[in-house]
Amino acid sequence: MSAGRSIADLSADLADRAESFCRQYFPEGRKQGNYWQVGDTSGAKGQSLAIRLQAQGGRKAGSWTDYATGEYGDLIDLLHERLGSITLKETLWEARSFLGEAPCPAVPRDTQTREQPDAASSKRIARTRKLFAAGKPVLGTLAATYLQGRGITRLGSALRYHPRVFLRHGTDDADPPQRAPALLAKITDIRGQITGCARFYLDPSTGGLAGIESPKRILGQLHGHAIRFWSGTGRSDLIVGEGLENTLSVGTALPEFDLASCLTATHLGLFIPPPGIKRIWIARDNDEAGRNA
């Protein structure tokens, strides 16, 4: 690839391979007509985010919109969010690698010498921190009712509750966002910095998950990160799980262990262990994605 190739050229080449791109980076999604639908930029299951596979009606292939958050862009933007990249350079290396044009693997992810996040990432992370800070402790709330209904008593400071979180119901929902109660779970990097917030929308009438499309959603960056629960004692073992509820169920039975929930099977495989961990126990979900993680 010549040095003069622009980001726009890379974006156009990715758009020409939009379906292959989606199948590689968003395997939890599914094809619906001319769109690939997935839960959010992290690759979670759902249909809130739609990626156009072929140009249509004057609209470009590879363009996407997350109808839950209002975010949109091209496949370079989407790849940046999917990877949780801190610099554009990392994203462009990955794009070139996908296109078969990279002369060497993607740049190392040295968490100690990273450049500062770009403006878009910083803004999104700031939103997640603001949302989580607005929550309150879960004890005595609908969130506690939900977790206790799952037999979970292992809680922690990574969990909060908010009674009125913005909510869109699906890709065809043109109405202004509603508000609904939600369990909030803080996603952090190995230094303890917040990078994202998982939202579990709840139904006050049942105490369970809300009966909506994709009641579990993620805002911010998940790549390599996790929702963490510490036992209070320094240990060299760590239980790393997929879904939050399954991870906490294991933690309820084994309260002496530290926990990390990666939320999806894809991100379980991308998890970056913290320093000092000598042994990792995998608590996978009992489904096909979990078995393949």
UniProtKB/TrEMBL annotation:
Residues 123-229 form the DUF7146 domain. This is DNA primase. It comes from the Bacteria. InterPro entries: DUF7146, TOPRIM_dom. It comes from Pseudodonghicola xiamenensis. Residues 238-293 form the Toprim domain.
